[in-house]
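Why show two proteins at once? Because comparison is the fastest way to build intuition. When a single record is shown, students tend to memorize it. When two are placed side by side, the eye starts asking what differs. So, the first record is below.
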Amino acid sequence: MLKTSTIKAAWPPCVMSGLMVVAGSAIAAGDIQFNTDILDLNDRSNIDLSQFSRSGFILPGVYPMNVQINAQSLGEQRIAFIPPEDDPKGSEACLSPELVALLGLKEGKDAELTWWQNNECLNIRSLPGMEVTGDLSTSTLRISLPQAYLQYTAQNWDPPSRWDEGVSGLLFDYNLTGQSIRNKNDGVKNNLSGNGTLGANVGAWRVRADWQGRVDAEDTSRTQHMEWNRFYAYRALPSLQARLSVGENYLYSDLFDSFRFTGVALNSDDNQLPPNLRGYAPEVVGVARTNAKVVISQQGRVLYEALVAAGPFRIQDLNDAVSGSMDVRVEEQDGSVQTFKVESASIPYLTRPGTVRFKVAAGRPTNLQEGGAGSVFSTGEFSWGVTNGWSLFGGAITDNNYRALSIGVGRDLMAFGAVSLDTTRASTTLYGDTYTGASYRLSYSKRFEEYDSQVSFAGYRFSQENYLSMSEYLDVRHYEGDVGGSKSLYTATFNKQFRDAGVSVYLDYSNQSYWDRPDSERWNLSLSRYFDAGPVKNLSMSLNLFQTQQRQEPTSKGMFLTFSVPLGRSGSLSSSFNRTQNTNSYSTRYSDRINERNNYQLAASDTSVSGFLSHAGDRADVDLSAGIEKDSRSSLSVSARGGGTLTKDGAALHRSSSMGGTRLMVDTSGVADVPIRGYGTPTRSNGFGKAVISDISSFYRTSASVDLESLPSNIEATQSVTELTLTEGAIGYRTLAVISGEKAMAVLHLPDGSVPPFGASVKNDKQQDTGIVNDEGSVYLSGIQPGSQMTVSWGSAERCSLSLPKELPADGLASTLNLQCQPIKADSTPASAVLPDVLEKKAS
């Protein structure tokens, strides 16, 4: 497709210098005069170069353009270009109040702004140093503004004024796992389990309903269970850097343990801070002896469920709002089950100087299966950055029979890390008796840059015998649990890189002791080393040692030693020795990547053979696992993770792993099969020209682009990239300018036998540029669709229309099309006269 920029580029500098004759007065006015004598044209009288006569000149009108401020994209906007009052032949971009609000100006700058065109357009001269330039060749409006005028920004992070609440719509995300197990003596057992989220977005509000269920079938018996975890709604409050939620929820606290309740909560949201000021997200580390299903839950609610291949696994994509103890269940291919708990603890409580972070909630505790229980409670906590190194924090929680008060201090030790110390005193009335006690906690975190190591978290908590946390109190009073709480809790996470030796070390440790129950202890140590052996590069060896002791259950301990050799471009062959519960096993695995979307693993051991296949599809992620045990036991498992998103502008099925999370719907101008790249594996637009990129980080600048390398030959992207920052749970919507159709040379004729002038532009029914007329009416057209219409413009107006053939030539458009351009009835209203009306409609 020939564009303005294409024609200019086609002329070498020596021709351009001869073509453009600039007089002194023309320089002042920005006009360029063309020396048409040097053009090799048969008809020099039929030329229209008015759109090129001024440097950067854009004809008056309204254009869809990608707005950039200091090279950062604000997304596509409709920009009006209007002749200034002091220059009727000129054209200036109209920056509307809505667009100015997205610039992120500092407080107080609004009072300095002046406006024109009935206060609909910003006078850019009211901000000294501001420059605005439009480029139709790339459909871009570039705004340059001194940084001193703007709010704080960071890499990939925008100020709240640029956050996008998205569009209204419906969503449904799911995670399903089906298993079929055949035993020689017990017959066939089938089960289907899943969890997901049903939701609706209305303005800034996100309404969500979480569900989980399971169906088990064995011989003629069948059991099923389905329940809704919670119904709730939430929204971001950028002015408070907080999140408001109502309905059924879990208490997210840095001072008190978590429990389920129905009520309202208002919490400072760390996700609304710049990335370097955000908090800590828990992770789960373990070892699967065979292909296994990992289920992570909290108080009965499933947080994560997925199939994993045999060997060590590390799950790091849990929501950072999760707090308290999590239950991990690893269901092995051979029917055995591992269970353990993981404590998700926060890093030391520190707050920026002069800033107050807070969390408040009120409601009634509830039980997932039994519904309401307990009296109405209320809680509140805060953290105040007193100075650059000290933070003070505290909080309280209470109901009719329970009261707890906490106070603490945090200290930034600079080169020695960060530490916090707090104490909580609780008083509880149970069955006429009063229990009063205290709990003390110490937390530490440090990254040792000079040693390339990090203590992600280290903590210690000691509780007196008569101290009960809120959840322990609820267990005793309403769920008939035993009186008696925890005594001490040690947690630590450490990792270290020895880069010169190619060695990395990871340690995760927790120890929970009780006053009246056996202790629970768990640790996992992982060591890995990468090295070369002669011509063989990137060999690796890893050792995993683990031990789990859950109260009165037998101690589970073992080791997993693996040696891996790379094969080919992406394959690897590994041999493993596994010792668990005094039982030894050996296995060999081969894993490889078929392409960007598919990878697989084949494994054989002294007791079984198995296979694992993972596929990243456009509509869902699918994992398939199969295995045979030596005792005639066989299993087949399949899991699918995906979702659907519906808006007034269209719908699409898509991959999804974060239930009810933030997503971006990309409209490829109605063109199907357009490859779209966001994070990870690219996807393709569906038959309606819609694609959804899920699992987008909230309050974080994200981008989506057309994968130009994989673009079909009959599709062209005139706008291939978009950027935006979405609030939590939003459904973003962006359109990328894509032209679909064939390309061919054509000759345009008017009814009187003449041709459109040199430089006239051709557009399709979507107002996309599809060509520029050359000598004698010749034009190279793109986006040719059978039976479609195109218009030809010159002299600041649409002049005639083209009707493309309903049947295109069978020779693949190798021949030139002869097209007649039918005149369009002239509109007596000049373009500049309708712009105020356009602006009025836009503002409304």
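Second record. Ask yourself what differs from the first in the token line.
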Amino acid sequence: MRSDPPGSDAPDHSGAPSSAERSAGDGVPAVVGPGTAAADLVRARTLLLESGGRGRGRGGEKRLDAESLRDALVDLHEFWLGTRALELGITAGSGMAIVAVGGLGRRELLPHSDLDLVLLHDGKQGSGLSETADALWYPLWDAHIKLDHSVRTPDQAVKVAAADLTAALGLLEARHIAGDAALSSTLVTAVRAQWRAQIRGRFDELADQAADRWRRSGEIAHRIEPDLKHGRGGLRDLQLLDALAAAQLTDRMPGFSPDSPGGGLPGAHKHLLDVRTELHRAAGRARDVLRAQDADEIGDALRLGDRFDLARVLSDSARTVSYSVDVGLRTARAALPKRTLSALRRGPVRRPLDEGVVEHAGEVVLARDAQPARDPALVLRVAAASARTGLPMSAATLARLAEAAPELREPWPREALDELLALLGSGRRLIDAVEALDRTGLWGRLLPEWGAVRDLPPRDAAHTWTVDRHLVEACAHAGALTTRVSRPDLLVLGALVHDIGKGRGGDHSVVGAELATQIGNRLGLWPSDVALLSAMVRHHLLLPETATRRDLDDPETVARVVEAVGGDTVLLELLHALAEADSLATGPGVWGDWKSSLISQLVIRCRLLTAGEALPGPEEVDPAHRALAADGGLHVELAPGTARAPMTVTVIAPDVPGLLSRAAGVLALHSLQVHSASVRSHAGSAVDSFVVSPRFGEPPSAALLRQDLGRSLAGELDLGRRLAEKEKAYGENAVREQREGLAPPRVLWVEDSTTASVVLELRAADRTGLLHRVAGALEAQGATVRWARVVTLGASVVDVFALDLGGPATRARRRQLEAAVLATVGGD
């Protein structure tokens, strides 16, 4: 027998109506009629599952929602098994019983779940037992119904459960279906008694098993394609909680308050089951991983909205389950029966942590004399103590605070603000503390604006986290940068709220600045600090966007930034640190030495301009490169970088049309990702520099790059064909799915300065040789690229080209170039 891990302790089946009886007035097709052929069961299942899409089925019948479908499937299989049991003599007093585990045992049978059944007997049937078992199993096998089965006495089943943890977890959810109910009751009672008696010796294995599963499957809340069954925060974790409850170590329900998001644990359980039910129905087979391409269909079927709305519901549900499991495991470990000598020792000592806050049994709890109703800052003091010590907050303490703690008056008392700043400045330990407050409804009381970003999925593939988790991650990273700024308090506050305007429509920086003013006033900040906090949120993208998408040698670029910050060097300093914290919290690869150096250069130039000093001029061509350019030959140099910093490839060659695109194509052919490119000239030769990094492996030699570039310029190397082959080898389907999952490509135009140059900004999905294709399209249209900068954000890119159009930058001319670029990006 294959048994699933633990499920709910549902009562024994006792005369539940058949599906035909229960749904006679619901437009659901009648299921099993007279006779017990398994083919009838299959036909009835098919009628239930093929009842059309949203609204009505193929024959106009009402479509069952996810929960009703599960109920109908349970009733259908119970009716068939009950009828078959009567025919085979499996009745009350027969010494035989049919027991269900798995989905049917939990009353959570999904459209394509296996049937997990045990034929239980008292050992007195002799040779007739085998015939009865065959008569029960073979019709199901012949009908191609997936079946996991076993034939055991209660004692045999109990012995298996004692030796195999997975079998024990499965038998904890055993439920009587038909036959001798007393026999089933004997099994259930014995298995649960044994589980309670052995839990002290099996708890570590149970916890390790869960941790291994989480490592394999990841967190549902923060995965693009989550595993709804095995992932952290999934259905297996709910069954784990049931197993702990069966051992009488926890009550399965941590202290959720009416303010808790998502309806607490029951709501999370239903959402996860509903999504997995529709996933089975949409896929036509058993499936646990929600693929990105199926999310819109499932969101629509559940009337939740599109894939982003579905992702938000899943994140909320999974985080609620994850928090509950953390509390359940912690509570269970503390409640484990003690060994003989340990039981005689003195209980845990209450160690003071702060006013009204103590440590007890490894958790942060309230002191005996604490008065939550008279201490408005107590919630934040408890959270700050938890973050400072790394100890979790007791679920009972959070429940008491949720029930008794008063609302903070506006403006906040200074003590409350100080505790908030202590919490925000505690680094990585901040994350678990805020999560616990949020899951129990306390964080939303402190920051009512949080509701709009809670569990909000990112729209950009570069973002790893939901928006609310990204804000907390940014705050944790900002905590490590506080010694670099003169106002560490405003840095962590700005990191916490810099994206608070998302999820409300409009420019999130503008909306967020208004909300930051509202929040700052509520916290009791000085008016000047409120203005500074609002400016941080309004301009939190100013430095990274300018540094990576504009020409830093253009004085007009620097002047615009200084004007935007009002010449305020404190604000500039805060924005610099916030840009780093924001990037680090976005995802892997978003922050690095290249991006750091660009922003640092911009900040230095802004400080010089603010101080009235002269800005450094454009970097001149290196004397060694001038000498190479004078000889009129083809030269390629590769300057190595560090472990994190990209390297520089310099191409010196006669300045001919198409040189930039061909050089970019050769770099792409050798798996070098281009971050930026500058185009200069000397003595009739082009001096083009590319900041690159290998996508994988070791970089090619400069000699190999020179050889392939020479062949391309001579017409001996078809770069277009070779790059297409490379993209196909890389995984053509994956590349196309990547592009389909993102917003369509877009072109923006920005004036570079008072010169004739304009900036074309392309936002699109990344693909092999993209810079080669775009540069080639611009060159074919007669535009000269002065410099280019490429930013890769996950599966997306922002490519910026400063262009000399060779004439007026008319609207028609821009449309012509835009059409050429978009055609190139979309082409295969």
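One difference worth noting in the second protein: Confidence is low (pLDDT under 50) at residues 1-35, 52-60, 732-741.
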